[in-house]
Design goal:
single chain; about 160 residues; alpha+beta; about 15% strand
């Protein structure tokens, strides 16, 4: 069981460390809302402070409870992820996914605890469509969630093939 936790923590570190380094670099090099074009018409680096959650949910300055709320939700999520590593983490893909989600959750938790907001800066757009800015932690959560879904899908197909 220790090996599965070590592997998951290694995956988490693979997200957490670059997440914090890139946020530090962007915070140091940009002013709030400053944007620099990287790929014309497609990708910018833009410093955004997100007090809310995914897609800016609850990202408003006229309420002051979102930080404690999201910190609490993150602690619950981390506890659930640790439980899942214990119960389901023997599958390599599942373990990877859980570790990536853990690293992403911890990366955004560090921001909330130290700044009261999450630092976002990856800004994609195409034509009239604009994706909300995000960060490396969000990438870890998204890729990790896909790995978890794929692991369950593979497990379901293995059971179906045995019938």
């Amino acid at each position: 069981m220790k090996a599965r936790f070590l592997k998951a923590f290694a995956w988490a570190a693979l997200i957490l460390v670059p997440d914090q380094i890139t946020k530090w670099i962007v915070q140091d090099a940009f002013t709030l809302w400053e944007s620099r074009e990287v790929i014309p018409g497609f990708f910018n680096l833009t410093l955004v402070h997100n007090m809310g959650a995914a897609f800016g949910f609850l990202n408003t300055s006229d309420i002051d409870w979102q930080t404690p709320f999201f910190v609490g939700v993150t602690f619950l999520a981390v506890a659930f992820i640790l439980y899942m590593i214990k119960e389901e983490g023997q599958d390599g893909l599942m373990n990877c996914g859980l570790g990536l989600v853990l690293g992403g959750a911890l990366g955004n938790l560090v921001d909330r605890l130290s700044h009261r907001y999450v630092i976002d800066f990856l800004d994609f757009h195409l034509g009239g469509w604009h994706w909300p800015a995000f960060n490396v932690a969000d990438c870890g959560i998204t890729v990790g969630a896909c790995a978890i879904i794929l692991s369950y899908w593979n497990k379901q197909n293995d059971v179906s093939d045995a019938d």
